[in-house]
Amino acid sequence: MSLVEPVPGEPAAVADCGAERALVVADYHAGIEIGLRYERGVELPSDADARRERLCSLCDRTAPDRVVVLGDLVHRIGDPGRGERDEVGALLDALDARNVPLTLVPGNHDGGVADAYDERLDVADAGGLRLGDVGFVHGHTWPDRAVLGARTVCMGHEHPQVRLEDEVGGGRAEKAWLRGPLRLDPFADHFDVAPASLGWGRPELVVFPAFNDRSGGTWINVEGQSFLSPFLPEALDDDAEAYLLDGTRLGAYRRV
Q1: More reliable by pLDDT, 22 or 78
Q2: I want to staple 140 with a disulfide (CB 3.0 to 4.6 A). Which of 34, 108, 164, 213 is the partner?
Q3: Binning pLDDT at 50, 70 and 90, where does residue 166 land?
Q4: Is the bond leading into 233 cis (omega within 30 degrees of zero)?
C-alpha cells in the first residue's frame, strides 16, 4: 500500500508518517482574491470561509494527527497583509478547536508567514521536512538530501492540471495528480556528488493539485507548457502517471 493515499474527489491526501497520520494539501493561497484584485484587476468575492470549511471537513473525515501544507499557505509574496492574516488566523482557530496542529513547508509565497503567526504555526525549513518515510517540499527550490532519502516525496508549487477534449473538440480543465519515480542523476549533479553516495532507493514523487480553486496551474499535457520547479521535468521518470481527483488513471503524463 502507498504511503500517500489521495482522498477521493479532493485535492488532498493522507500520508502514513509512521508515528502519525498527516492530512496533506498544497497551495492554499489564503487571500488570493485580494491578490487578484491588485495583480489583474479581477474582482471576486472572498472564498475564505469555504476554503476553511473544506479543509476542516477533510480533517473531520480523515482524523489526522496534523495538517501539512506543502507551501503557499498565503498568496501575497512577502509579509502577509490583513486579508491573509485574518484568513489564516481563522483557519488556525478552527484547527485548534480540533486539536490538529498545522505544519507549513514554506513556499515562494510564504516569506513573512513565520513571523506573522509566531508559535501558532510550525514552519519547516525551505529545503523540506521528513516525517517517517515521507518527505515534504514545496518544490520551488531543490530539496534537502535528507528529504530525498524518504520512500515518497510530496510536493506542491506546480498546480498540475490537464486539458481533456471530447470527440467534437470541446475541452475542459481538470486538476490532476502526478506520480512517478525520481531520477537520481539530476540530484547527484546538483549536489555535485557521485550518484551512489546519495544512498536512496529511487523515491516516488507525488505532485499535488492546488487546494485553491482560483490559483490556475501548470498544464502537464499541453505542448510548450514548462514546469516551474528547478528539478522538473528532468528528475521525473518519463513513465510518471497522471490521475484525476476521482482516481481516474490517465496513464503516462507525457502521452495524455
Answers
A1: 22
A2: 108
A3: low
A4: yes
The phi-psi region of residue 199 (left if phi > 0; otherwise alpha if psi is between -120 and 50; otherwise beta) is: left
Among residues 104, 187, 194, the alpha carbon closest in space to that of 146 is found at 187
> Which amino acid is present at 36?
L
**CB-based contact 220:178 (threshold 8 Å):** yes
Q: What is the pLDDT of residue 214?
A: 84
The pLDDT value recorded for residue 39 is: 63
Segment 128-132 long-range contacts (CB within 8 Å, at least 24 positions apart): 128/153, 129/68, 129/103, 129/105, 131/15, 131/17, 131/18, 131/20, 131/22, 131/68, 132/16, 132/17, 132/18, 132/19, 132/20
Q: What is the tens place of the pLDDT at every residue in 104-135? A: 999 887 777 766 666 778 899 889 999 999 99
Domain of residue 136, residue span: 4-255
